[in-house]
Write a structure and sequence with these properties.
The structure is a homodimer of 482-residue chains. The first copy, chain A, has 3 domains: 275 residues, 2-Layer Sandwich (BirA Bifunctional Protein, domain 2), CATH 3.30.930; 96 residues, 3-Layer(aba) Sandwich (Rossmann fold), CATH 3.40.50.800; 72 residues, C-terminal domain of ProRS (Translation Initiation Factor IF3, 2-Layer Sandwich), CATH 3.30.110.30. The radius of gyration of chain A is 25 Å and the shape is globular. In chain A, helix 3 crosses helix 7. In chain A, 50% of the residues are buried. Chain A is built from 15 helices and 25 strands. In chain A, strands 3-7-8-14-11-10-9-24-25-23-22 form an 11-stranded mixed beta sheet, sandwiched between helices. Helix content of chain A is 38%, strand content 28%. In chain A, helix 10 links the parallel strand 16 and strand 17. The longest helix of chain A is centred in the C-terminal third of the chain and has 26 residues. With 482 residues, chain A is α+β, with helices and mostly antiparallel strands. The first copy, chain A, starts with a helix and ends with a strand. Strand 5 of chain A pairs antiparallel with strand 5 of chain B.
Chain lengths: 482, 482
C-alpha cells in the first residue's frame, strides 16, 4: 500500500518524462520552486550532491595547478559593452541592478551571467610579465541568466557553477589548457557521475559568445535527448584586446595574453536524475550519492531492544569507515514504506536488519540498481559495502553506456536522419558540409542540433553532407537537446 | 636592500594602522579593489584562507546536526516589506534588480542582504508537523549590502558568509540553539583563528533587525578597536508570524515555530590581519594559513644540483604528510628577499636549506611569530614541523590573549571611561543602567558602544551606571569598533 502511494505521486517515466522529472525532484526533496519565476531552492538532499561534486571536481582542478578566488557579483554595463559579441550573447539574459538603497546608480550593474569581463579587467592589472603567466584561477559562484523557459537544475534564472579563467603566453598553451580541461570534465563525469559522454568542438553557431572555439561534453539522457554537461572555451585574444591584458614576453616585447574559460554547473544534478532514474525513482552513483547506505531496521516484536542497537552499531562502524550512511529508525513508517522511499531517493545500497539477521549476525544488502539481494556478515561489513558500492558505480556507468551505444545511430541521408530523430531520438552520427545554412535547416526541420564535432575525425573521402549532399567537411553528432 | 623595498611598500603599523592594513592586503595579494565602488576581489592567497575557514567551520556546523542548502539570491520586495523592523534595518542597504533583459520587472527584487525572508517563506511550505522539526539548515553564500563606507574584508558591498537558519518546537530549544552556535563560534575562532573573544548579548539598540535577541563574539584588534566576529540571533516567532510558519504540535495544536539565525563572514579574514599582523606583515595561525611551511633554498654555488633536489624531497614529504607547503625556487629573487616576502605574507614556518645544511642532512626552521631559529634533522621532519606549528598556533593565541587582557580595563565613573577610551582604547568593563539614552550618549561622546553584555553577570549590589550614575542593570563591555 505504501509503494502504491509513491507510485501515485510520481508520474511513470514512460508516460511523461518531463512530469516524471519534475515529480521526482519535488518528491525526493532535491529542489523546490522559489516564489520568483524561474528560481529554485536547492534543498539539503540536492545540495549534498553539489557538495560531493564540488569536492571531487575541486580536487581535480587543483591537481592541474589551479587555485580558487572570488570575483564580484556585479559587472558594470560598460564592461559588458566592450566586447560586442559577448554583450550580444548575454544582454537579453542579464538581470540589471539600478538602485543601491534609495539612490539610482549612475551606471547599471549586471548581475554576472559569466565573469569574463570583470576577470579580464582584473587580469589587466595583475599581469605584467611572462613570469606572471600562466594564471590559472577558478571560482565557485552563483550566476544569473534571465531565462524565459526554465526547469529545475537544467535551466534556472540563478544557478551555481565553477568557472575557470586562465591566461597564457602562447596560443598553443591556451589550446592545450582548453583540451586538458575538456578531458578533466570527461573523466570526472564518467568516473564520478557514471555518465558516459561524447566530446568535441561546438560549431561556430553554438559556440560561447566571445570565444574562438568552444568544446563540450554531451551526454544522452534516458529520453534520448542530449544534455550539454560542461564547456571549455579557447578565448584566443578577444578579451585580452578588449581589456588590454598585455605582458612583456621573454624577448621584452609586449604581447596580448591567450585565454581560456570553462565551467560546469548544478545542471549536472539534473543529468544524474535523467541518466540513472527509473520508475521507482532516483538512482545515484555511490561516488556522489548524498547517502550511500541506508539502514532499515525491520520493526517487529521487541525490535527496539534487539535490532535497533545492532543497526546503530552498523551505522557507527560504516560512518567511521567513511561511508555516508543513514539509519531510518522512524516509528511512524513501516519497513516496506521505507524500502520504497529510499529507493525513490536513489540510495545505492540498502541494509535490512531484522531479528533473525541479528541472531545470525548478518544484514541483507539490496542494490538499488539491480534489486539484487545478498546477506552479508556484519563483521567486516565495511569491506563488503565498499566492494558493492564499487560494483554499483560501474554497473550504472555500463548501463548508461549501453544505452548511449544503442541510441547512437548513423544516418546516410536526410530521410533516414529525420526518421531516426522522429522515431527514436538519440545521437545521430552524420556528415556535414560545414555550412551554417544546413545546420540551421536541420534544426528548423528536425529540432536537432550539432552537439559536437568529435576531435578525432575520420579521414574524409567522398562523404556527403547529410542535408545538402555537398562535400562533407566533418563528422558530427546531432541530437535534440535540453 | 630587498627588505628595504618591502618596508617602503607597507606603512608601519604604528604610524598609520589603517594604511598599514590596506597596504598589507594589497601587497600580500589577499584582495584587490574591484572597479565598482565598495567591491573587492578576493585573490587566491586570501581565498585560500576562506577555504580553510569553510572547511573547519562546516565540519563543526555539521557535527551539530545541520545540513547545507541553497536559497535564491533574489528576494521580492514584498517579502522584505512583510516584517517592518527587518525592512527598516535593511532597506537603505539593498541593491535592487529592476530589469531582466530588456523587460522591466513588475516587482523589484532585492539582492539578498540576508535570507530570513525567503527562507521563512520556504519553511512555511516545508513545515507541517512537529515531526518536521527541528529544521537545521545552513547556507554558504554571497550577500550584498550597499554600504557607504567600505574597507576590504571588514565592510564591503558584497561579502561571503554562512548563514544558519533553524526552526524549533519551543522557545527553549531556539534559545539553546542560539547559545550553542555562539559557543561553536567562540571555540572555532579561538582555536582555529587563534583570536580570543568576549561573548554575550547585544543591547536592543545593537541587535539584528527582526530578532528577539542577538548574541555576538567580539575580539580586540591590535589597534584597540573591537570587531564583531559573528552573531547568533534568537528570532523568537517574529518571522514565523509574518510568514505563517505553523506546525501541528504533539497535542495536535497549531503553533508558530521558534527560529534562530546566525552567521560569520569573510570579515574573519580582516580579523586575522588585524589581530596577528605586525610591521613585518601578516602572521597567520597555522590552522588557517594558506601556506603553512615555506621552503627557501639558499641559492649559492651549484645549489640547483645540490640544494634544490633536497628541497624538493622535503616539499614532497611534507606535502604527503598533509601540510600546505610551498617551495620558492624562483631564480630572480635572493634568499633574503624571499625571507622578507614570506614573512610579510604571514607563513608560520620557514625552512631554509643551504649547501651546508644538505651536508648535515638538516634544515633551519624559523618561526614567523618569534623569529626563533632551530636546526632540524631532515629525517622525521614532519613530526618536528607538526610540533612547531602547534606551538606557533598556541603562541599566537596567547599573545592575542595577553593583549586583550592588558587592554581590558574597568571604569568606575564616566571621567575614567572617557580617559581610557581617548588614551588607550581597548575594552572597558563598566556598569550600565540599561537605558538606551545612556547608551546613545556614550556613543555620541566617546564613539564607544556596548559590544556585549556578558552572559555571566556579577550579582549586582549597589553598582551604578557609568554614565548617569543611576542603579546599574548590567555589566557591559564597551569599545570603539569597526
Amino acid at each position: 500500500m505504501s509503494e502504491e502511494r509513491l507510485v501515485t505521486q510520481i508520474t511513470p517515466k514512460s508516460e511523461d518524462f518531463s512530469r516524471w522529472y519534475l515529480d521526482l525532484i519535488r518528491r525526493a526533496e532535491l529542489a523546490d520552486y522559489a516564489p520568483m519565476k524561474g528560481m529554485m531552492v536547492i534543498r539539503p538532499y540536492g545540495y549534498a550532491i553539489w557538495e560531493n561534486i564540488q569536492r571531487l571536481l575541486d580536487r581535480r582542478i587543483k591537481a592541474l595547478g589551479h587555485v580558487n578566488a572570488y570575483f564580484p557579483l556585479f559587472i558594470p554595463e560598460s564592461f559588458l559593452r566592450k566586447e560586442m559579441e559577448h554583450l550580444k550573447g548575454f544582454a537579453p539574459e542579464v538581470a540589471w541592478v539600478t538602485h543601491g538603497g534609495d539612490d539610482e546608480l549612475e551606471e547599471r550593474l549586471a548581475v554576472r551571467p559569466t565573469s569574463e569581463a570583470i576577470i579580464g579587467y582584473m587580469y589587466s592589472k595583475w599581469i605584467q610579465s611572462w613570469r606572471d603567466l600562466p594564471i590559472l584561477i577558478n571560482q565557485w559562484a552563483n550566476v544569473v541568466r534571465w531565462e524565459k523557459v526554465t526547469r529545475p537544475f537544467l535551466r534556472t534564472t540563478e544557478f551555481l557553477w565553477q568557472e575557470g579563467h586562465t591566461a597564457h603566453e602562447t596560443r598553443e598553451e591556451a589550446q592545450e589548457e582548453t583540451l586538458r580541461i575538456l578531458e578533466m570534465y570527461r573523466e570526472f563525469v564518467e568516473s564520478e557521475l557514471a555518465i558516459p559522454v561524447v566530446h568535441g568542438r561546438k560549431t561556430d553557431r553554438e559556440k560561447f559568445a566571445g570565444a574562438e572555439a568552444t568544446y563540450a561534453i554531451e551526454a544522452l539522457m534516458s529520453d534520448g535527448k542530449a544534455l550539454q554537461m560542461g564547456t571549455s572555451h579557447n578565448l584566443g585574444q578577444h578579451f585580452a584586446r578588449v581589456f588590454d591584458i598585455k605582458f612583456e614576453d621573454r624577448n621584452q616585447k609586449l604581447q596580448y595574453v591567450w585565454q581560456t574559460s570553462w565551467g560546469v554547473s548544478t545542471r549536472l544534478i539534473g543529468a544524474l536524475v535523467m541518466s540513472h532514474g527509473d520508475d521507482n525513482g532516483l538512482a545515484f552513483p555511490p561516488q556522489v550519492a548524498p547517502i550511500q547506505v541506508i539502514i532499515v531496521p525491520i520493526s517487529i516484536g521487541n525490535w527496539k531492544e534487539t535490532v535497533l542497537p545492532v543497526a546503530n552499531q552498523v551505522k557507527d562502524a560504516l560512518g567511521r569507515a567513511g561511508f555516508r550512511v543513514h539509519l531510518d529508525d522512524r516509528t511512524e513508517h513501516t519497513p516496506g514504506w521505507k524500502f520504497a522511499e529510499w529507493e525513490m531517493r536513489g540510495v545505492p545500497l540498502r541494509l535490512e536488519i531484522g531479528p533473525r539477521d541479528v541472531q545470525k549476525n548478518q544484514a541483507i544488502a539490496v542494490r538499488r540498481d539491480s534489486k539484487e539481494k545478498i546477506s552479508l556478515d556484519i563483521s567486516g561489513l565495511d569491506k563488503k559495502v565498499e566492494e558493492m558500492l564499487t560494483v554499483v558505480q560501474k554497473a550504472l556507468f555500463q548501463k548508461a553506456l549501453d544505452f548511449q551505444r544503442e541510441n547512437t545511430r548513423e544516418a546516410g541521408n536526410y530521410e533516414e536522419f529525420k526518421k531516426i530523430i522522429e522515431d527514436r531520438r538519440g545521437f545521430i552520427k552524420a556528415f556535414w558540409c560545414g555550412n551554417e545554412e544546413c545546420e540551421a535547416r536541420i534544426k528548423e526541420e528536425t529540432m536537432a542540433t550539432i552537439r559536437v564535432l568529435p576531435l578525432e575525425q575520420p579521414a574524409l573521402k567522398a562523404e556527403r553532407c547529410v542535408c545538402c549532399g555537398k562535400e562533407a567537411a566533418a563528422l558530427a553528432y546531432f541530437a535534440r537537446s535540453y
